[in-house]
Design goal:
Oligomer: single chain
Number of helices: 4
Largest sheet: 8 strands, mixed
Structural class: alpha+beta
Distance between the termini: 23 Å
Number of strands: 14
Strand order of the largest sheet: 3-2-4-7-10-1-14-13
Length: about 170
């Protein structure tokens, strides 16, 4: 479990959310899954968010260490129910497929916490909550709420044009 806000947001608007994350002291983390072996990129450079990417994490260093694991296919971020997951905010850009007239929502997400090796519950750090709350406020400023999702003006136009959301 955790907290999340779902939205439809194109690349240009998402850059404003990512810039705020950087201003809050986060690193941008992404996995390069299109190449083998896969790699994990950690940066404080907004240019790492390209129009071809759609999923990221904002890593808050003071919340804990960021862990990666190496598999046969390459390196992957350890992002759920762990110390590493407690230090990450999942963030994404809506995947827009113009040729298929499809748009997929994205979200900001933080986990509630995790159980350590002794079964002790470790809650999400308050510094993660503070950054997450700032990012949610930015998403809400950039979007309109339709009763179920938040969407930017650009994405609202695509939905009006009949883009499929599945």
């Amino acid at each position: 479990m955790g907290r999340q806000i779902n939205y439809y947001m194109e690349h240009e608007s998402f850059l404003q959310v990512a810039q705020l994350a950087l201003e809050c002291g986060c690193e941008i983390v992404k996995q390069n899954l299109d190449i083998r072996p896969t790699t994990v990129v950690r940066t404080r450079d907004i240019s790492a968010i390209t129009p071809n990417d759609w999923m990221f994490w904002f890593y808050i260093p003071e919340a804990g260490r960021l862990a990666t694991k190496t598999y046969e296919c390459g390196e992957r971020v350890e992002h759920s129910f762990s110390e590493s997951g407690n230090a990450l905010i999942e963030a994404g850009v809506s995947l827009i497929r113009e040729e298929e007239k499809k748009i997929r929502s994205s979200r900001l997400y933080v986990q509630s916490g995790y159980c350590d090796g002794n079964g002790v519950w470790i809650p999400r750090p308050k510094c993660v909550d503070a950054v997450y709350n700032k990012l949610v406020r930015r998403v809400k400023k950039l979007t309109t709420y339709d009763g179920f999702y938040y969407h930017t003006e650009y994405c609202a136009k695509l939905l009006e044009q009949g883009y499929n959301t599945h």
